[in-house]
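Exercise 7. Given the components listed, write out the predicted structure of the assembled complex. Treat all entries as one system.
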Amino acid sequence: MILGKASPEDMNLHPMRYQWAYDLYNQAVRNTWFPHEIALKEDLEDWSKMTEDERHAVKFTMAFFNPAELIVNRSIALGVYPYLKSPECHLYLAKQMWEEANHCVGFEYVLETFPFDREKIFNVHLETPSMIEKEKFVMKYLKRMTEDKLDIETAEGKKDFIRNLVATNIVMEGIWFYSGFMVALSFRQRNQLRNFGSMIDWVLRDESLHLKFGINLIQTVLEENIELLTEDFANEIRQLVIDGVNIETAYNKDLFPNGILGLNADYVNQYVQYVADRRLQELGLPKQYNVTNPAKWMSTATDVLELVNFFEQQNTKYEVDSGHTKKPTSNN
Amino acid sequence: MELTITKRDGTKELFNADRINRSIERAAFGMIDPIAKVTQVATDTKVTLYDGITTEELDLATINAAVQNIKENPDYDKIATRLLLKTVYKHVLGDYGEDQSQLKKLHRENFSAYVKKGVQDGILDSRMEKNFDLEKLASALDIERDELFIYAGLSSLLDRYSVKNKYQKAFETPQYLFMRVAMGNSYHEKDPTEWAIKFYEKMSGHEYIAGGSTNINAGVPNPALSNCFLLEIHDDMTHISKSVADVMLLSKASGGLGASITKLRATGSPLSSNNTTSSGPTPFAKIIDTAIRAIQRGGKKKGALCFYMENWHIDFPEFIEWKHNAGDDYLRMRTADTAVFISDEFMKRVEQRADWYMFDPKETPDLNELYGKAFSARYQEYVQMAEAGKLRMFKKVPATEQYRAILVALQTTSHPWLTFKDPINLRALNNNTGTIHMSNLCTEICLPQDKDNIAVCNLASLNLAAHLKKKQVDWQKLEESVRLAIRQLDNLIDINVLPVPEARKSDSENRAIGLGVMGFSDAIEQLGMPYDSPHTYDFTDKIFEFISYMAIDESANLAAERGSYKNFTGSEWSKGKVPIDTIEKLEQERGMALDVDKKSKQNWLDWETLRGKVKNGMRNATLMAVAPNANIGLVAGTTPGIDPRFAQVFSRNKISGKYLDINHNLVTELKNMNLWDMVKDKIIELQGDISSIEQIPPHIREIYKTSFSVSPYAFIEVAARAQKWVDQALSRNMYLEDRDMDKTMDIYYTAWRKGVKSTYYLHMKPRHTAEQSTVAVNKSAKLGKTGFAAVFKKTEAIVEAPQELATAAVEEPPIEEKNDQPESFDMPQDKVNDIKPTVTIPVDQTSKQIFSNVQTQIPLNGDQQPAASDKQKTEGHFHIKVINGKEYKVHMPSDPQEKFLCDGCQ
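Answer.
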């Protein structure tokens, strides 16, 4: 069983039961990158030419992401890691936590480089109601685990585990972050903030893996605990995702009080709904919104292989372990 | 919602949907089903608008709406292009009331005003007005040629190459731009107007395009028109400091640089002046790395430089690490690229598994100047001195170990690129003035340099795809293009203004030019040949032999008309040698035959007569070099250089933006077969790899492979065939999916055995990419997991309709049982020791196998196409494909998770 109270056997990596977690760990290691690889000079020049509404959108997005990455870490440390008995999952989560830290520092690197009023940006998430709501949403589920007494051996304890995981991994990382990435990448689509865009490429590559781990984990827990597969619980989880989308609507209004070229609040809402439907389906739940993807240009931004003119642009597609890692030999 | 538009003068007006629709309608002129397209673009535009949007933003929003639909149908590319053109016309020519005949008239009439205003404002050279009959030029302009552009090409051209007015706004139309470049290369002709029109005809028809720096600076005051500079950094502080300054000045003149640092003494080598020791080349390189960062060249081109080092330098192991993303920032080059300059001696030692010695150049100063047998002999002497304790310092490693270290770094960081010193020098016709110590930024230039000479090269590229007619090469047109391009390049040298005296000297005394080729893959697709087929290899021979012949003949003609270049005397040209004749010398010095078919495929070309002509004089020290053309290839709307299609659909991340590139040839084929609408989403989902799409006939899938499914040996073979005829070199981009180190070692060893002079960037296929946004993704279904779906299966749906989607997920088979991976049919470069496909090997000799478990042959005979009915089964680590009754083992990714990672996130 993947869930349970810690016991000494949890420190044995072999025999390995959850190969997928170990493989995700290895891919995550290959994906390692550092913020200083991104040069921001040209982005600074773009910044000086941007409109107030555009600047607001960038600052607002940064203000959300910077603390959000740390909230994810807290949720992993207190709400996920302690209840897992699989050392291969622990390996992966250790790398994921480093990645969240790296993302936070990455945004920090941008914040330090751009002419921002940093104090102001740091405080936005404490002062903006729509952002407070988002953080409260995630913390609510985590608190059920940390402040109330949770027994992971009980069905209710397992449900709390799933609730927290869905709130953090599916809603926050899998929906809210994705819409943030779309907004950030939209600037590159208009040939602005291209290097910041390269960093977002990397963050998105990491987050895609986090999401994959989360979905694997949820699926495994459900498979191993079929008593959780009830209509009530399924509906509850579905409602949890829908609540997340609703909270995002107010946030998007604050993100784009007026709109900028190519984007407005309705547009982003529709994208959020599109992504949310995808997450519902991945959980095996019916779609809620049935909307199309308004951001067709995302096919260019993320969906196809990218050929980089490397002396113009940081190549974000390399991996750091080539030729070093031994391939698993079990199948030979 | 009521929307208002903010006009240029700041006043507001109500948004008028009709007006937008009409303008999109005009852009959709002549298309099938225009109404659907207009509606699509208009709808997509509307969702992105906001109250108070400016008219300028509105134009952009409409263009962006068209652009994001290109993946559905390349007609949207045309719409976007026309919409973008409209904004340029408006800016440059003023309001033309959207009337085409009025536009044409204005375009012609305004030309001489454009030149005069440019000269008056100091934007254009005064010779642009004085030397030409502007009315005659104006009547030669053909605005219809703007229809040749694709969106990404036009957008790049405008962003990077077009001259802006004082307020950084558009100042010229695309046709004015081409005419400016033509004029800016004709000042010294007897009849400048006549020649400018000839050059214009070629460039505006995309038959050839000048190099980037020429496009930016031709016709402007103090025109710096050269593309490449190669400079050597000498081992003294004064010269190092001077080199930093030179690098900055040359970068500003918008050229890319090669810089050799082999001569810099090693870390720990004594300094005589103050009795201390040197810190080695790295800190000095770092100064240059930082210096080029400062040169942004107005966002048109970025400062770019490649460091070259020979691998016998004792600090070479540190050099290999320069591009790693972690580690001490002062020991890393964030901007500059790196390339290793490898001797035959090293490759032979790899082959023999012998030791490799590294020295301090302070103690072995002549090694950098020597090549061929002389290098080997001297190197051996130093080895003996080292072993006898007569050298202050040396290092010794097994040669294979260093070779592996180079390739591990290459796979990990895409650097250093591998270039080969001996074929470069032994096959040179122009190194009578000294050794060639390096190549350039893009590894296609081979020119000598020393303390008094910074080598300079001037580039243009022929677009092969523009020289096809009814599935044939239009040889007559190609000859005309070659001759005009050579003349235009030669003209350039006398107009060129360079900021450094050593560069001026080398440019004027050598008159080195490099005519390249682009649209190679575009052409072979249209001719129906797969990149990795013997037919393509022979076609390569045909094309390059022809271009080589015509280019040499034209340079000899120009010598008769204008005189030979200064350093001609003593060159191999002056001995009546042409590039193909130099293979013999390389083979003699190397002591082994090149592993390449040496025969001519154009037997009618009279090389013997040409040799006699060459002996009498050549106008240029070099003539050909195939640049990567990442930008001008895009401008011409074709594939860059000799590169394969990266994928059938992919994105380009460039200084001018991120563009979707979709293969128009493939779309046309699929539309003809009525398949396009059926497979277009699948093509995006599979990231442009169509090999597993069953609906597409196998022969189409063979022709339209991605760069990662083409055999890497094919890249080598194409380069080797072309290299026979090209006097300089080719930017040979490499693409690998397989990370197996033994295979990689063999691939680069094969390149050396076939006489390839240089390789360029290595693109590794990423194993993991971000989750796709615009195609359906269900990670759980891919895992064969159902999640909560089981609940609803039991109890029926709780909400509205989309239940079938949830159940669809249930029925999805687990991944292990799926064999629909995007694998190509020709992958026997894998572990196929026992079963080899019977293929006709299109080469004279086969290379010796020195790396284990690797098949070094070029796979696949062109005729061998898998039939649709071919069976597949999986057997342990391989699956077995049955093609034409034969069984092939096809390697599956050895890490089973890797397979899952490749597509699992999508």
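Discussion: Chain B touches chain A through 113 residues (CB under 8 Å). Confidence is low (pLDDT under 50) at residues 796-847, 853-906 of chain B.
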